[in-house]
Amino acid sequence: MSQLSIETGDTFATLLELAANNDIEGFEKSIESDPSSVDEVGLWYGRQKGSKQMVLEHRTPLMVAAMYGSTDVLKLILERSKADVNQLCGVDRTIALHCAASGGSLNVVEIVKLLLLAGADRNLIDVNGLRPVDVLVVSPKFPDMKKTLEELLGVDGESTILPLPEPEPEPEPETERSRSGIGFGMFAKRVEFR
Length: 194
Known about the structure:
- The protein is built from 8 helices and 5 strands; from the N terminus they run βααββααααααββ.
- The protein is an alpha+beta fold.
C-alpha cells in the first residue's frame, strides 16, 4: 500500500505527531531545521486524563513521546535538548511523568526510568493534587508492570489507579468518504491510496 501524506503549514503540530508515532527519522529531520522547537509547548488533541472527553491540551514533544511510549524519540529529546523534564504545562499543570503514567503505553516502565534518570520529580503534583503514581493507567493483564511502576514512582499510601478506557464502539459502516481514504491526524491531513 503506497501512502501519500499532505502536511499543513503547522510544523510544530507535525513535530508532536512525529513524537507520538516514535518516528525517529522524521522527528530528527524536523528538529534539524528548527532545533528550538523541541522545547516548545503546543496544542495536542487527545483524551483528557481520566475521561473519554477529547480536548486540546498544552504539551511539549517530550510529554507526547512519554504519553505514547515513544522511546526512541524520548531518548533523542533527552540527549539533544535542554528540555525541562519537570516543566508544568497546561491548565492541568502536568509534567512528562504524569503523561507517561497516564498514557497506558506498553513501554511505560522504560519511559518512566528514562525520565527519572533525567531528573523527573515523582512527587510533583498536578492541578488536582495528584502525583504521577496517582494517575497510573495499566492494563489488568499486566499486574507486574503496575507493581514495578508503583515502586519506581514511590507509592507512600493509597494511589488512584485509573482503569484503561473502555474499547470504542464498533465503527459505523463504510461511507463514500471513509472509502476514499481521506482522514486526519493531529492537524495534518493524510491521503492514503489503496
